[in-house]
C-alpha cells in the first residue's frame, strides 16, 4: 500500500508543479496586470492545492500522520489568493491602468465616468 500512496502523492504533487509552472509562464507572457493577476490567482492556487493535497495524502497513508497545518494552509490560500487578486485588479482599474489592446469593451468606465460627473455637480 505504501507504493500506491507514493504514486498517488507523487502524481498529485507533479500536477501541482505543472499548474505552478503554467502560472509562472502566464505571469511572464500575459500582456497586462488584469490577465496576469488571473494567471497568478487561479492557476497558482490550484497548483498549491494539488501540491498540498499530495503532501497530505502521503503523510496520511505512508506515515499515518494527519496534519491540521496542511488543511489550514489550504484554507488560507483559498481565502487570500482570490481576494488579493481582486483587490489588485480593482486598484489597477481605479488607477486607470490601461487594458491590453484587444476586443474587450470597457462598459464599467462609462458608468464610473457618469458617477464622477454627478459627484462633481453636488
Automatic annotation (TrEMBL):
UniProt keyword NAD present: no
Subcellular location(s) of the protein: Membrane
Primary localization class, coarse: membrane
Keyword Transmembrane helix: yes
Cellular component terms per the entry's GO annotation: membrane
Topology with respect to the bilayer: Multi-pass membrane protein
Keywords of the record: Antiport, Membrane, Transmembrane, Transmembrane helix, Transport
Transmembrane region(s): 6-28, 40-61, 67-89
GO molecular function: sodium:proton antiporter activity
Family: Belongs to the CPA3 antiporters (TC 2.A.63) subunit G family.
NCBIfam families: CPA3_mnhG_phaG, PRK12586.1, PRK12674.1-2
Name of the protein in question: Na+/H+ antiporter subunit G
